[in-house]
Write a structure and sequence with these properties.
The chain is an alpha/beta fold. The chain contains three helices and five strands. A five-stranded mixed sheet has the order 3-2-1-4-5. About 30% of the residues are buried.
């Protein structure tokens, strides 16, 4: 069985996160606003597989938040994105 990659964009805010999951064809698989809690992200993303590429808006608090998925799921590729670039989560809202 193949574990195709999914791409996750997280628009980071102090109290909430906008989480968008897309496949390789840019089809939106999930797009939700959740509380700022790593477990909320895990619940949204894990049904889509383990080959996960995450981009989180780099802002105050985001680096600490990014450590949670990186340490809990070592196969996830977690990167901070420059706030000048739009994440998948921001694209999903447009």
């Amino acid at each position: 069985m193949f574990d195709l990659p999914v791409y996750v964009g997280i628009d980071y805010h102090t109290n909430t996160l906008q989480v968008c999951v897309m496949n390789q064809q840019r089809k939106i698989l999930a797009n939700q606003s959740v509380e700022n809690n790593p477990e909320a992200v895990f619940r949204i993303v894990t049904p889509f597989g383990s080959n996960v590429h995450v981009a989180i808006e780099a802002c105050t608090g985001a680096a600490d938040f990014a450590e949670a998925p990186a340490s809990k799921y070592p196969l996830w590729h977690v990167e901070l994105a420059h706030p000048g670039y739009r994440t998948n989560a921001e694209r999903c809202r447009r």
